[in-house]
User: What shape does this take?
Amino acid sequence: YYQKEAEIIQQKQELERQFRHDLNNRLQILNDIAERGNISELKNYLSEIDTKQKEHTVFSNTENLIIDSIINSKLQYASEKRIKVNADIILPAHIKVNTDDMVIILGNLLDNAIEACEKVNTDKYIDILMRYEDGCIFLNIKNSFNQVINRAGNEFITLKKDKTLHGLGIKSVKNTIDTYNGIIEFSSKGNEFS
Assistant: This one.
């Protein structure tokens, strides 16, 4: 899984470098079209560039293979599902944390955010913020949701039919965070879950 994701990241980074390299040529064409006053052609060309740029988005570039792989994979999938994604991730390349633990935390939380967004008809978004300060990782994920939360006390209960195969993600995240003496908080306000 990691190898596959690393290859995808490397391919996307290479395409991004090529895109930036060709930017001068694109700017010249835009300038020529603008000077001719052809607004329709200008809009079409800008739309093509925008589409190509979105295909090459790298959401996380910390040089930490595991973190970059899981975030880029999940957020690229979200983007393909027409979910607006905003990622603000600043982490050192080397963090003393078990890589499998990061996969459990990021994978489950991002999967849940994507699933929540898929149930919303309009204004689908995921915002992720990650920082590393004083030996701690701070992670905040906000997403749109349909305001339906199924809880029993402090526990989230899955809304999926097969309860034996689903509803384990949050428990796994909590257990993993507990091993680091970490804190996890959930909140919602209006159409936003955090």
Notes: DSSP finds six helices and seven strands in the chain.
